[in-house]
């Protein structure tokens, strides 16, 4: 992925520093703020490729900041990705309803954080085939009983939607991965 101009906003300095370090080590230019109003002002003036927002900011709601950025004409091309410790489906749904382009869960590791960010920004779909190995996906007595030539196919979208098709004998490998 090309070098991006990113903007990170988080009210907790240690968390913000960790995000900045991970993003800079991946070769990106990173600006930052610790408050919502400062982040909004600087996003409008600097127009980064993407702003990474924590849901819980000290002085304003991260969802409100997202809505203001998405509604501002100068920021029409700025992508918004939430980085949060909140695993709740409602928070994720509300973020996407406000116009977010991605939602990344903490804790962050260098591999997963940059990979998830790239997938959100590129709006990629991840396609996996589970249990497909050789002529019989899952050979053995159980495959004869349950139909051994059926694989499990999964699609995961950048916005978090997850679909499973024909959950055949490969469903075991998928469940192990989840």
TrEMBL record:
Keyword match Phosphoprotein: yes
Database matches in CDD domains: REC_OmpR
Keywords associated with the record: Phosphoprotein
GO BP: phosphorelay signal transduction system
Segments passing through the bilayer: none
Coiled-coil annotated spans: none
Keyword check for Flavoprotein: no
InterPro entries given in the database record: Bact_response_regulator (IPR050595), CheY-like_superfamily (IPR011006), Sig_transdc_resp-reg_receiver (IPR001789)
Domain Response regulatory intervals: 5-121
Name of the protein this chain belongs to: Response regulatory domain-containing protein
Organism, as annotated: marine metagenome
Organism lineage: unclassified sequences, metagenomes, ecological metagenomes
């Amino acid at each position: 992925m090309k070098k991006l101009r990113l903007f990170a906003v988080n009210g907790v300095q240690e968390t913000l520093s960790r995000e900045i370090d991970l993003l800079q080590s991946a070769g990106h230019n990173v600006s930052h703020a610790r408050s919502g109003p400062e982040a909004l002002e600087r996003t409008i003036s600097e127009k980064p490729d993407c702003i990474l927002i924590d849901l819980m900011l000290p002085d304003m709601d991260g969802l409100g900041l997202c809505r203001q950025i998405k509604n501002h004409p100068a920021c029409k091309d700025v992508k918004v990705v939430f980085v949060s410790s909140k695993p709740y489906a409602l928070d994720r749904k509300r973020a996407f309803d406000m116009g977010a382009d991605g939602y990344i869960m903490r804790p962050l590791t260098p591999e997963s954080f940059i990979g998830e960010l790239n997938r959100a920004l590129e709006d990629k779909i991840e396609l996996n085939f589970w249990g497909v190995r050789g002529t019989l996906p899952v050979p053995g007595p159980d495959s004869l009983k349950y139909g051994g030539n059926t694989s499990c196919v999964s699609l995961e979208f950048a916005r978090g939607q997850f679909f499973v098709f024909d959950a055949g004998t490969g469903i075991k490998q998928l469940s192990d991965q989840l």
